[in-house]
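Q: Got a minute? One more chain.
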Amino acid sequence: MFDSIAGSIVHRSPTRIVVRTGGIGYELEIPVSTYEKLPKKGDVEILTHLYVREDSMKLFGFSTPDERALFRLLLSVSGVGPRLALTILSGSTVTGFVRAVKSDDVGFLTSVKGIGKKRAQRIALELKDSVSDFAAGAPYEERQPGIAGDAVEALVSLGYKKKEADRAVRAALSRTPEGAGVEDVIRSALSGV
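A: Always. Here it is, folded:
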């Protein structure tokens, strides 16, 4: 819904900022890694994620596409909410976290406050395939261009987990004829899921 907000920083602390734009002050919760990259005052553009629950709406801000993508990926893990996802981003770099997940470094993951051994194992297991995209170096959103990326994004927006959507789209692409549009791939993926 909100991709980014550009405006002036009104308030800045290690865990939140207020950005004023168009006469409205938007409060965003941020990881420490984003805080370190922000100017003390002045204009800023920050990437956002709107987290909606039946009893609350919160806006989260990130300085890089990879931070936001990892935050969203962490939210897909059972038992990981936005508060823990921010703690993970604040306690490590994106590359350090990806390296830990890829190598099953449970010790690194348990060093983050709020992550015990079982949760660390679950995070490593559920994200192992998904974090390999971060190693490519380009921003996460740019790594799945074209029809496949659009189809995966559509399935995720319908409530499928990223890994499940990737698998369904790969299978659908093998079933659909050459030159099929994104709608055909999504239909095929939904019928095969």
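A: DSSP finds nine helices and five strands in the chain.
Q: Perfect, thanks.
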